[in-house]
Design goal:
Helix content: 10-25%
Distance between the termini: 126 Å
Radius of gyration: 37 Å
Structural class: alpha+beta
Largest sheet: 4 strands, antiparallel
Oligomer: single chain
Shape: elongated
């Protein structure tokens, strides 16, 4: 029987493979070290506490004080007013708690992202206030007009004047009331202010 050497079944070792493995192992270790360092840094930032005692100071100076005591950096646009005057007295309080106190009654909101604190202008949602509008529709002679249709422009619901020319409907300041009557031109009346009684004269269709 012919003897076959086992060496014939294996490739020769590449002298550079060992060095390549070392480089890969070193790179992975370095990446893991950086990741853990970054996580630890963020954790320390989130747990950072500050001591501040300022009365009637500009908000900008208080923010600078927080930056000097921590690794945080404030970022904001020009529309954020940091010239407000604020008073605050805290001792060894987390930055998030200090900001909540500092910006509670201000038009500024904040968001913490890593070592950055982003300040933005609060968006105040204006909820329209619906009022009950009442009024009287008369002609040129001062006689009440019966059956005049009053609607808020752009809407279908409205009101019709009664025997005394009176009407009542819900509308907001800034809405436009539309008065329609057979034989008369359509009258548009903008609501500038809310009054209990509003007399509107309808002109004859020309």
């Amino acid at each position: 029987m012919k003897n076959i050497s086992l060496l014939d079944f294996f490739c020769r070792k590449n002298p550079n493979s060992k060095q390549l493995f070392r480089i890969m192992r070193t790179s992975i270790f370095f990446l893991l070290f950086c990741s853990f360092s970054l996580m630890a840094k963020n954790a320390n930032s989130q747990n950072a506490k500050v001591t501040i005692n300022k009365q009637g100071a500009r908000l900008e100076s208080i923010l600078s004080e927080i930056e000097s005591q921590t690794n945080y950096l404030f970022i904001y646009k020009k529309n954020v007013d940091v010239n407000l005057y604020k008073s605050i007295s805290v001792k060894a309080k987390p930055v998030s708690e200090v900001l909540s106190i500092l910006l509670h009654d201000s038009p500024i909101a904040y968001k913490m992202e890593g070592n950055h604190i982003i300040l933005t202008k609060k968006e105040i949602a204006q909820t329209p206030t619906i009022k009950r509008i009442t009024g009287v529709v008369t002609d040129k002679a001062g006689e009440p007009l019966i059956g005049v249709t009053i609607t808020v422009k752009g809407e279908s619901q409205g009101s019709i004047t009664d025997m005394n020319g009176k009407f009542s409907l819900s509308a907001n300041i800034g809405d436009v009331l539309q008065f329609s009557y057979i034989g008369y031109m359509v009258i548009l009346q903008a609501l500038i202010s809310v009054v209990r009684t509003q007399s509107t004269e309808a002109h004859h269709w020309c």
